[in-house]
Design a protein that fits this description.
The chain is mainly α. It has a single domain (23-58, 76-353), classed as Orthogonal Bundle (ADP-ribosylglycohydrolase fold), CATH 1.10.4080. 62% of the residues lie in helices and 0% in strands. The protein is built from 18 helices and no strands. α12 runs antiparallel to α13 (252-263) and α12 (236-248) crosses α14 (269-282). Residues 1-18 have low confidence and may be disordered.
Length: 355
């Protein structure tokens, strides 16, 4: 096992106390940092069973290198982000170019270009199953309106955080989520998961605490389920609400078992997004600890931790995350997330002024 480059989860208290940023900027920046931090923590454990995670790492408490035989990210250095963060940045740039709108043809082309870049880099972290099927359909002549009609996985949810930052709560948010989902995840299930994350982030940026952000996520998940095409699958919102009292009654170890064995950590939205929401509820006061738990679960750990981190970061702000880990993220991945947050927040204010 590689030696972690970060301290234990309690180090969240060591976050920066330097010049106080504007609260909305702090929260927008926090959403992107939480996304990237969770993503990087889950990078070495993604697609591994819980037993394999325990054998190799015990419990994730910080950034670790991926093993040479890691099935998706072989040999990636500690602190590296995956497709969750990279596609979220792609969505952010498209939103900025489109002044809040995403052209579906441009989005499809950008996803194809992104995958080719990953192939050239020797990565196996390529397009997910729903996105790959949609792009293949487009290349075979399907329209952008048709390509995503079977997309039920969490790809739309993992990359939607910039939509939540750029769009204030209200009537424009769900259409923006649908627009960011439709090329690859144009189903009620795929849109529902994405709407939950976007609404929670948007509420957090506006000042909501974790409880209010989760309420917004549930309401948006219900609304999102009525969009797109129907597919068989359990409701994101109703599964979360049904499982919440059971999860709250468990101790920490039993809670982690419950997420892995009962809720699920697969790429399916009704598993991974629900697990992320339950993690946010439980670790609402200790964000970094929650992300380490997510990264230790097994399954689609990078996405579960990333979307939980986005919600927690939006509610707590960038100061929830330790300076050393933020520096590692930016150094290893060449990220400028504060600048991106500033640009998305400016777009949010322009959007708000038009409503």
């Amino acid at each position: 096992m590689s030696t972690p480059t970060t301290p234990t989860a309690s180090a969240g208290a060591a976050a920066s106390t330097s010049t106080e940023p504007h609260p909305a900027l702090d929260r927008a920046h926090g959403a992107l940092l939480g996304l990237a931090l969770g993503d990087a923590l889950g990078m070495p454990t993604q697609s591994l069973s819980r037993e394999a995670v325990r054998e190799r790492y015990g419990r994730i408490t910080g950034f670790v290198d991926a093993a040479p035989d890691q099935p998706i990210a072989p040999g990636m250095p500690a602190g590296s982000v995956t497709d969750d963060t990279e596609q979220a940045v792609l969505v952010a740039e498209l939103l900025l170019v489109g002044e809040g709108s995403i052209d579906p043809d441009d989005f499809a082309a950008a996803l194809v270009d992104w995958e080719q870049t990953m192939i050239l880099r020797g990565s196996r972290d390529l397009l997910g199953p729903s996105t790959k099927a949609a792009i293949t359909a487009l290349q075979n002549g399907a329209s952008t309106a048709e390509a995503g009609r079977y997309g039920t996985t969490n790809g739309a949810a993992m990359r939607v955080t910039p939509v939540g930052i750029a769009t204030p709560p209200g009537a424009l948010l769900l259409p923006a989520v649908v627009e960011s989902s439709q090329v690859t995840h144009a189903t009620g299930l795929g849109i529902s998961g994405a709407a939950a994350i976007a609404a929670g982030v948007s509420a957090g940026v506006d000042g909501a605490d974790v409880g209010a952000a989760l309420d917004a996520a549930v309401a948006a998940a219900r609304a999102g389920a009525r969009e797109g095409g129907w597919v068989a699958g359990a409701s994101v919102a109703e599964r979360y609400l049904a499982l919440l009292p059971l999860a709250r009654a468990l101790d920490d170890d039993a809670f982690a078992d419950f997420l892995y064995d009962v809720v699920g950590t697969s790429v399916q939205s009704q598993e991974s997004v629900v697990s992320a929401l339950l993690l946010v509820d439980r670790y609402r006061h200790t964000p970094v600890e929650g992300l380490c738990v997510a990264a230790s679960l097994g399954g689609d750990t990078d996405t579960v931790a990333a979307v939980a981190g986005a919600l927690l970061g939006a509610c707590h702000g960038a100061r929830a995350f330790p300076d050393a880990e933020v520096a590692t993220l930016e150094r290893v991945n060449h990220l400028s997330l504060r600048t991106l947050a500033e640009r998305l927040l400016a777009l949010r204010e322009r959007t708000r002024s038009r409503t």
